[in-house]
Specification:
single chain; 340 residues; alpha/beta; 7-stranded parallel beta sheet; 14 strands; 16% strand; globular
Length: 340
């Protein structure tokens, strides 16, 4: 049996669907109050609980041969440090301990943000060290700390392999990732300003394909970057304009202005005025202009990410369907209240 933690998340729900489709017996671990819409109509065994709870993790791991550990708190704002550490580090330790105890293979989903940050514009591959002291943002630091613990366990005999996805985008983004919020704002015609930078964006379905290959062919104790290729935000927005007919933003903030605007955006979000999309950490990430190499995964796993235009078309189609579905639900609710 296979266990997926964080199964209602973006990568988690797509992975769970793929496993079920391929006839695998799947157990998922989800938070007690999680919205299970992403797992709707899937034949899976559900364990409710938090990865911070050792007893629940022990229960979830019984009879498991393979665990995909995806449960994590992803935050680009600085307010959740304690929670980030408890879930991303302590939670990973709990899953790792039980996987080792039961002799199960563990595929740990880390992040490219765990790598030490070289100079802007550099190429990052698996030879770059994982170092929490040399990465920006507390999310990246917690992923780096957890990754080092996983690698240490591997040297001591645990059967673990590490995946480091780049910026995950694509359909089935039910909980609205940071980039999901950007897509949604764009589709509503409300994205008028963007950052003049770039990043490597990869399709969630390609990440899942990489994780599946990783579980079968990944070398114990090794790290594999699962990415696509870097694209500028200008280029991505132009591609979205071509797909949707919605005008792309005409204003792209250079680094110095982006810092100022993102700082005010973060400050206003802390007062509950609106939700920050481009935070100082997002500005930092997009303006480092790194290129991430997935050559190792390509050679050793047969990993082949799809063209970005295909991902964007499918993402737009999925989000538009979600907007229409929500609109229909609101209409039905309003009609039922008015007796129409």
């Amino acid at each position: 049996m296979v266990l997926v933690t964080g199964a209602t998340g973006h990568v988690g729900n797509v992975l769970t669907k793929r496993l079920v489709r391929e006839g695998r017996k799947v157990r998922v671990m989800v938070l007690p109050k999680d919205d299970l819409t992403p797992l709707e109509n899937l034949d899976v065994e559900i364990v409710y609980g938090d990865v911070r709870d050792k007893e629940v993790v022990a229960k979830a791991m019984k009879g498991i041969e393979l665990v995909y550990h995806l449960a994590a708190v992803i935050s680009i704002t600085p307010w959740k440090r304690k929670l980030l550490y408890e879930v991303n580090v302590k939670g990973t330790e709990n899953v790792l301990r039980e996987a080792t105890k039961h002799g199960a293979r563990m595929v740990y989903v880390s992040s490219v943000h765990a790598f030490a940050e070289p100079e802007p514009g550099a190429v990052i591959d698996e030879n770059i060290p994982v170092d929490p002291k040399r990465t920006t943002g507390f999310y990246g630091k917690t992923k780096a700390i957890a990754t080092l613990k996983v690698l240490k366990a591997s040297r001591e005999g645990a059967d673990v392999v590490v995946a480091c996805p780049t910026g995950v985008i694509g359909p089935y983004d039910y909980k609205l990732s940071e980039m999901g919020k950007v897509f949604m704002k764009f589709l509503k015609g409300k994205l008028r300003i963007c950052i003049d930078g770039s990043f490597d964006f990869v399709d969630v379905r390609d990440v899942v394909d990489g994780l599946m290959k990783l579980s079968e062919r990944g070398k114990k104790g090794e790290i594999y970057i699962l990415g696509n290729r870097s694209v500028t935000m200008r280029k991505m927005m132009t591609m979205l304009e071509g797909i949707t007919g919605i005008p792309a933003p005409r204003v792209y903030l250079p680094l110095h202005l982006a810092w100022v605007v993102s700082g005010f955006s973060l400050m206003f979000s802390s007062f509950g005025r609106h939700e920050a999309i481009f935070t100082p950490y997002a500005v930092h990430t997009l303006t480092r202009n790194y290129a991430f190499s997935h050559k190792k995964a390509e050679i050793e796993l047969g990993y082949r990410p799809r063209p970005l235009i295909e991902t964007l078309k499918d993402t737009v189609e999925w989000f538009r369907a979600q907007i229409l579905l929500r609109s229909m639900k609101i209409t039905q609710l309003t009609s039922s209240r008015t007796g129409d």
